[in-house]
Amino acid sequence: MSHNLPIGVFDSGVGGLTVLKTLEAQLPHESFVYLADTARLPYGDKTPQQIIAYFHEIAEWMKNHPIKMLMVACNTSSSLALPTLETLEDLPFPVIGTIQPTVSRVAFSHRCLGLIATQATVQSGAFEKNLKASNSNLSLHSIPCPKLVPLIESYNLNSEETRAIVYEYLSPLLQHPIEGLIYGCTHYPHLSPLIKNILPPQSAIINPADYMALEALSFLRTHNLLKTSGLAETTFYTTGCPQHFQSSLKIFYGKVTSVQKVNFL
Ligand code: DGL
C-alpha cells in the first residue's frame, strides 16, 4: 500500500468535520477523502441493521477510491458496525473508530464519567461495555440526546431553543460527581460553547477526535505509511445535496470548497 494514498473519513453529516479538523492539524501532510452520508441522516434513530449496512456500503466505496486507512468519524457507526468487522471479511485497510482509542486512553484515569450520544449509541452500550472491560470500578452515566443532531445540521447552534435543550439533556448528569464528559457523537463539539457553560468547571471534556488522531498517527508511523512532506488535499463527497453540504462546510469547516455527489441509494 502506498503512503501517498489519502485517508478516508466519514460521518452522517457535519459531525465528522470535528474529527477531520483534528486529523488535519495532527497529520498536516496527509490528504483526506470526506464522505457525508447526509441523504440518510440522522443515523441515531436508525436500526442496528441499517447502520451496519450503511457502513459496509461506505467501506466498499472507500475501497474503490482507494484509501490507505478509514476513520469512522461517527460514534453510532463505531458502536454498531465496527464490532461486526471481526466476523465479516476483512477490509483491505485499517479502520479506526471513536471508541477503542478513547477507552484505551481514558478508562484508567477516571472513576465517574458522563456520556452524551445518539439514541443508537447509548442503546448499543458500546462505550459502557468497553470502559467497564478496562476498568470495572468506573461508573458511566449515559444520556441519549436525539434532538441535537437535527438542530446542528440546521445551523441552530446558539439559539435559546438549543440552549434549553442542551440544559435539559445535561441536567441529570449534574446530579453525579462526573469528572469528565465524553462527546459520544461527533456533532456535539459544534455545541462546545453551550455545553462548557453548563458543565461544572472541574469536569473535563473528552473528545474522541483527539484520541483518534493519536491512534492514526501511531498506526501510520509504525507501518511506514505516514506522509511527512508534500502538499495535502481534502476532497468532499455527499450522498445528499452538494450545494447544501457546501453551505455547511462554510459554517462548520470555515472553507468554501467543491463537493461531489455520490449515489448509493
Ligand atoms: N455524528 C454521528 C455520531 O457520532 C452521527 C449522528 C447522527 O447522524 O445521528 O454518532
Describe the fold and architecture:
The chain is globular, with a radius of gyration of 18 Å. A six-stranded parallel beta sheet has the order 4-3-1-2-9-10, sandwiched between helices. Strands 6-5-7-8 form a four-stranded parallel beta sheet. The mean pLDDT is 95. With 265 residues, it is α/β, with parallel strands linked by helices. The protein is built from eleven helices and ten strands. The two termini are 30 Å apart. Helix 1 packs across helix 10, helix 4 runs parallel beside helix 6 and helix 4 packs across helix 10. It binds D-glutamic acid.
List keywords for this structure.
alpha/beta; single chain; six-stranded parallel beta sheet; 265 residues; four-stranded parallel beta sheet; 40% helix; binds D-glutamic acid
- Total strands: the figure is 10
SSE string, helices as H and strands as E: EHEHEHEHEHHEHHEHEHEHE
- Average pLDDT reading: 95
Helix fraction by DSSP (H/I, runs of at least 4): 40-55%
Shape: globular
Q: How many helices? A: 11
Low-confidence stretches: none
Q: Percent of residues in beta strands?
A: 15-25%
Straight-line distance between termini: 30 Å
- In the sheet with the most strands, the strands line up as 4-3-1-2-9-10
> Sheet with the most strands?
6 strands, parallel
Small molecules bound in the structure, each named once: D-glutamic acid
Q: Structural class of the secondary structure composition?
A: alpha/beta
Radius of gyration: 18 Å
In oligomeric terms, what are we looking at?
Answer: single chain
